[in-house]
Design goal:
Largest sheet of chain A: 6 strands, mixed
Strand content of chain A: 25-35%
Radius of gyration of chain A: 19 Å
Number of strands of chain B: 4
Number of domains of chain A: 1
Radius of gyration of chain B: 31 Å
Distance between the termini of chain A: 39 Å
Helix content of chain B: 55-70%
Shape of chain A: globular
CATH class of chain A: Alpha Beta
Order of helices and strands of chain A: EHEEHEEHEHHHEHEHEEHH
Strand order of the largest sheet of chain A: 6-7-8-3-9-10
Shape of chain B: elongated
Structural class of chain A: alpha/beta
CATH superfamily of chain A: P-loop containing nucleotide triphosphate hydrolases
Number of strands of chain A: 10
Largest sheet of chain B: 4 strands, mixed
Largest interface: A-B, 29 and 24 residues
CATH topology of chain A: Rossmann fold
Structural class of chain B: mainly alpha
Order of helices and strands of chain B: HHEHEHEHEHHHHHHHHH
Helix content of chain A: 25-40%
Strand content of chain B: under 5%
Oligomer: heterodimer
CATH architecture of chain A: 3-Layer(aba) Sandwich
Chain lengths: 258, 393
């Protein structure tokens, strides 16, 4: 197995504003979102980060995508450090999340070309790739419709396609099916499997057990910013269903469900 | 990927020029509005209005003044004038008359009066209602006539009286009069419209992208933050420049109308192509700074609305700086003044309009402005790189 991602002691602390302190009903000035996280992912696998809301999954993925910088630790994607070589990392990865929006004013066609230019892709390659991806996701009929006028599902598909203009080897996907309608969700998960067949590596975060069972080769369970378990799906479950096993782990770690 | 800045510029321009509403409100409207408003103000407010003919009630009309008052465009009533009754009526703002009351035997009283005696002079009462335009106009005409009569009475000397109508007493050249006027007015107005352009363009492009979450999509691409900052500032400056040009054209075309230059015998065409080139360079370098400031504020703000709110007090500061040459004059000997941002541009523009510009000052100003812009772009780059600034909620 080829190791493509190595995460070493990644930590991130956020300062709480007074308002946030009131909402969280705490006197703490800081909150540790990710606490000394280490794991690896291999080329050609789908790695899932599983955990409840607020466990630090999104923060971890945003650090890997170089949108935010870790306080401590580092991670290497295909040998490039997210701390010291963020631009090289950005060229290698495709980051997908519902947070990344597209400008309403432009059409999918324009946006595909625009982002392709930012990645410095040859126009001929762009044209071929665009035709293929637009057809695969059914965007071809809406290629000249402004994003503002697209349906929610079509917007999400366009957003996905635009994140993949450079055909990245490494895809980071935060909550792949969050907010998607059932049809779009299915299209997306099918496509992730397709990407794996092409030999791409995918790291995704989710709190949906069935999604992990259907897609992931290996799973890391994150609770309170710490990785409690990291293994293949079979290795973690040990005969139990993922859901039962997860709550066992959760109770052991937190001493109960509350 | 050296072309990334260019890619950003192209996108910003596509965004702007593809949006007809934005194009209309930021480029077409400012010039057109300034032209229409200034022309309208020039044509209407400065011109005496055609009002209804007012009536002048005169009590004890003296022989001496009768011909002069009768020559006024007023309907005169001299019989049966009831002073007290008219006084009551005049309190209504709809009244269209004025009342003039002479003391009995006015002519003999004035003939006998000796100013050296220290006694009060014979008094004439002129009642009017300033809320009624007709009455006010009647008052103005009558009091002018009375003053002229009083002057005639004891004329000892005249100022600039001349039989020859073509005699000139103000020896300033047309160029200097117009140049002086323009150098005080236009730089401040230009600065104001340029800043207003930046205010309407920068927040949607930067704070808007932040607010809508589209900037994060850009930040995960290999696009360098410096390229993004440079691309944004250049494209926004280009668009602001168009807005500024539109206002400038509107202003230059309509200012002569506003100040009624042709009636005052002034000619506004006193500048050469080279003057305009220098002005354009100055304006563009100023817009670069203003856009940098507006961009930094927009990058800092959480929303377009917040950005506009922070920008409002800045606008006042910029306007005050714009008025400085009006108050302190344009003669500045120390070149260091031309390194003060915004002030240097206003000063230079004033000098160009007054035909006093020195090439050195213009060069210092433009170089200083470009350096400040570079500093602004550096700050903006740092802000785009800061997760605290970009993802603050």
């Amino acid at each position: 197995m080829n190791e493509i991602l190595r995460v070493e002691g990644l930590s991130k602390t956020f300062r709480l504003s007074r308002k946030q302190q009131q909402i969280e009903r705490t006197d703490r000035k800081e909150i540790v979102a990710v606490d000394n996280l280490s794991f690896t992912a291999n080329k050609g696998e789908i790695f899932g980060l599983l955990g409840p809301n607020g466990a630090g999954k999104t923060t971890t993925l945003r650090m890997l995508a170089t949108l935010i910088a870790p306080d401590k630790g580092d991670a290497f994607i295909d040998g490039c450090s997210i701390v010291s070589q963020p631009e090289q990392v950005r060229a290698k990865i495709g980051f997908l999340t519902s947070e990344l929006k597209l400008e309403d004013f432009f059409t999918p066609n324009y946006l595909f070309d625009f982002f392709s230019q930012l990645y410095g892709i040859d126009p001929e390659v762009v044209a071929k790739r665009k035709a293929k991806l637009f057809e695969r996701f059914g965007i071809d009929k809406f290629a000249e419709v402004k994003v503002a006028n697209l349906s929610t599902g079509m917007k999400q598909k366009t957003s996905l396609v635009v994140s993949l203009v450079h055909d990245p080897e490494f895809v980071i996907f935060d909550e792949p099916t969050n907010g998607l309608d059932v049809l779009t969700a299915r299209t997306v998960t099918d496509y992730l499997l397709e990407l794996r067949e092409q030999g791409k590596t995918i790291i995704l975060s989710t709190h949906i057990f069935s999604l992990v069972e259907r897609l992931c080769d290996r799973v890391g369970i994150i609770i309170d910013g710490q990785m409690t378990h990291c293994d293949t799906l079979q290795g973690i479950c040990g005969g139990l269903s993922l859901e039962d096993r997860f709550f066992d782990i959760y109770k052991t770690k937190k001493g109960g469900l509350e | 990927m050296k072309n990334n800045t260019w890619t950003i510029i192209k996108k910003e321009c596509a965004r702007f020029f593809g949006d007809r509403t934005m194009l209309l409100t930021t480029v077409v409207m400012p010039g057109l509005m300034i032209y229409l408003i200034y022309s309208f103000m020039g044509n209407n407010f400065m011109e005496p209005k055609d009002l209804d003919r007012a009536t002048l009630y005169v009590e004890n009309m003296p022989e001496s003044l009768h011909p002069m008052l009768e020559a006024l465009p007023l309907d005169m009533v001299t019989e049966d004038v009831d002073f007290e009754q008219l006084r009551g009526k005049l309190a209504l703002k709809e009244s269209k008359f004025a009342v003039l009351a002479f003391p009995e035997g006015f002519d003999s009283l004035t003939a006998q009066y000796d100013p050296a005696s220290g006694l009060p002079a014979p008094n004439v009462q002129l009642l009017y209602n300033s809320a009624s335009e007709s009455s006010q106009q009647a008052y103005t005409m009558v009091s002018a006539t009375l003053n002229a009569y009083e002057n005639m009475y004891c004329n000892r000397f005249d100022i600039n009286a001349s039989v020859d109508e073509s005699a000139v007493f103000d020896l300033a050249s047309n160029e200097d009069v117009v140049g002086n006027l323009f150098s005080k007015l236009i730089p401040m107005l230009l600065l104001m419209v340029a800043f207003m352009g930046c205010m309407s363009i920068a927040p949607p492009s930067i704070a808007g992208e932040k607010e809508r979450g589209t900037i994060a999509t850009l930040l995960v691409t290999p696009l360098k933050r410096r390229e993004l900052a440079l691309g944004k500032v250049l494209s926004l400056s280009l668009i602001s420049m168009l807005s500024g040009l539109s206002s400038f054209t509107g202003m230059m075309l309509s200012l002569p109308k506003l100040i009624r230059a042709d009636e005052l015998g002034m000619d506004a065409n006193i500048y050469q192509a080279s003057d305009y080139v220098v002005l354009l360079l100055l304006i563009f370098s100023t817009i670069l700074i203003l856009v940098s400031v507006a961009s930094i504020v927009s990058a800092f703000a959480k929303s377009v609305k917040a950005a506009s709110t922070i920008m409002a007090p800045l606008m006042i500061v910029v306007m005050l700086v714009g008025m400085l040459p009006m108050m302190s004059g344009t003669e500045v000997s120390n070149l260091a003044y031309f390194a003060i941002p915004v002030y240097n541009s206003v000063l230079c523009m004033s000098q160009v309009f007054a035909h006093e510009a020195s090439m050195v000052a213009v060069v210092v100003t433009i170089v200083a402005n470009v350096l400040y812009t570079a500093l602004g772009i550096w700050i903006l780059t740092r802000m785009f790189d800061s997760e605290k600034v970009m993802f603050s909620k």
